[in-house]
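Pair request: fold both.
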Amino acid sequence: MGTNGSTMLEPLRQGLPPVDPTAVSGSASCALPARFEAVRGARSFTRSTLSQWGLDDRFDDVALVVSELVTNALRHALPDDTRPAVGGAGEPEAAVRLHLMRWSTRLVCAVRDPSEDRPGGSFAPERTQENCDLESGRGLFLVDSYSDSWGWHPLAGRLTGKVVWALFMLHE
């Protein structure tokens, strides 16, 4: 299932400040299995990618956000027959993908999943205080706190599901 990166990123770009797609200086993605161990793999992928881009100093914040977005996708966005298992063989092809993109002044991490449901259910910035103790609200509260902005968009074209993204501004 080779995912066309530009197809996945098109709805993502609609939610960001206008940016020339040709100005992307780095892009990397990985497929994640429907297992909670995938969060560790996503963190490892993020560490090696940021290191290649010379952004080691941003790892802690970005990895926390990546962990929350991947965990949400695994916990809430997969169909019941592909819910994460602890270990196990013969799982279906990865339905969750992590994509990291770097421009000169920004970094975006995006997680694609097959659900078209709004992330976080009742999470809304104006209700953060009452939701931050709830399991489903706490993760997005952390995403909101550690990134410069975040959002989500349904996938376009033949792909079904959504992309949840977080933006980090880079100061050179």
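--- second member of the pair ---
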Amino acid sequence: MRTARLRTVHPALWAGLAALAVGAVLCVIGWYGMSGERFAERQLPYLASCTVPGAALIVAGAVLLTHGRDMLAASRVERLYELLVTAEPTPGEPDPAPPLASSDRLLMVPGGTLWHRADCPLVEGKPRAVPVDAGAITEAGLGPCPVCEPPTGS
């Protein structure tokens, strides 16, 4: 499903591509015309009628492409936000996402500031992680991990 904003982006992108193409053709024609002339006063008409407008069209095309891509990105972000807002679970329904960690064993990494569940993705597989108890947690001033959300009453 496309939004109204998404449909208005394509003309800007196509106009940018067309301006780039026409500008490139004009620059090539101006270069070809100037290269065949020996004197500067005979090269000036090609410069004024082809090369300068071609360069201006190339710049305008680049600006249109950038603007079109920014609008496209913004519309995609808005669409994703709409999907996120409408996908909220209704009250009373269980959370469909399983917890990241559920172990009752608690660990900490020496020198760290957090304590974790043993199967937390942040400490899982780290050989330096050591078991921790409630006394060590308060002694070291550790905080609970926001990822695995260990029990605070331990």
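Observation on the second member. The helical segments are 4-35, 40-86, 134-140.
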